[in-house]
Amino acid sequence: MGDNALILGQRLAEWLGHGPQLEEDIAAANIALDLIGQARLWLALAGRLEGRGRDEEALAYQREQHEFRNCTMVELPNGDYAFTIVRRMLFDAYQRVLLERLASGADGEAAAIAAKSKKEADYHWRHSADWTLRFGDGTEESHRRAQSALDVLWPYTAELFVRDEVDPEAESRRGPWLAQVEPLLEEATLAVPAATKFLSSGTRGVHSEHLGYILAEMQFLQRAYPGARW
Amino acid sequence: MVDAWEVLSGIGDPEIPVVSITELGIVRGVARRPGGVEVAITPTYSGCPAMQVIEEEIIARLKQAGCGEVKVKIQLSPAWSTDWIAPAAREKLRAFGIAPPLPVNLFPRSVGCPRCGSARTERVSEFGSTACKAHYRCLECLEPFDFFKPL
Fold it and tell me: What domain range is B123 assigned to?
């Protein structure tokens, strides 16, 4: 949870000063801020549960690539704005399902973070769904870009619903996720890509070549000057 | 013993200084502890950059007021809602040029212009100058304004 939010937040922050229009620049910054705030809460909780004295800063800045558990989708480069939006749409829909379940779960601290984050995920989704619709059902060019983003991203969503010992319920989230995504894609005149055998492995700590570059940029200051503070 | 709540009521929000942190519903409780007080606060948005400033301000002001040791505890549950913003604070927001949040469960939402009061407004973007505000425009007086998003 924390790593997904942290890495996607970091990716979104790359749009700062480069957004396609001022409002979208600000939107990307706002959403990145929410995600990094959520990451902080999750990683702080993870650090406390681990009980080895690592706080959220240590977990964000001092872990190696293979120790990150984010799904591969969030570490892919931003591409064009259609790619950035379609990825967020797929991710936001997933977050809404997962956070809602965690919010009603038995773990008090996790439930509190999830309930807080769910409110934010809801309006992130409104934003990404709205733009997916605009791109898909927009001009020929915007449709082409949204469809090609979807074609690239779709295989990476398979990873989100693979059951393992950490997450035995992963499969059961696919239905509620599709229930949000499919009607939207249909309205946006985008075709749901065919299933493939491809399975990314970020959640198991085996990442694409792109994560290392994000970490290099994100971690260099703490690695060069350990414990540096503002 | 000074009234800690009153001291806290004198602390303005770093991003919207016309309203206090108690009026915004950020302060969730004050408890007396041996030798000091413990203040529970809740973040408005997960990534709100004002939280740290608020925490430092609470510690400084309560110490100054003679409350002894001050501990600030972050309380996430129940999650903050704009419905907790006090009625008087809503008017202060409006006077400051920010359209106050409407009740979370109220639909359809018609946002009134904080300047001329017209209901003929349009949303420019759901994201504004801070995480808690959206960007609107009045179609009557043509002025742009901020709307405190219901959350």
Answer: 91-148
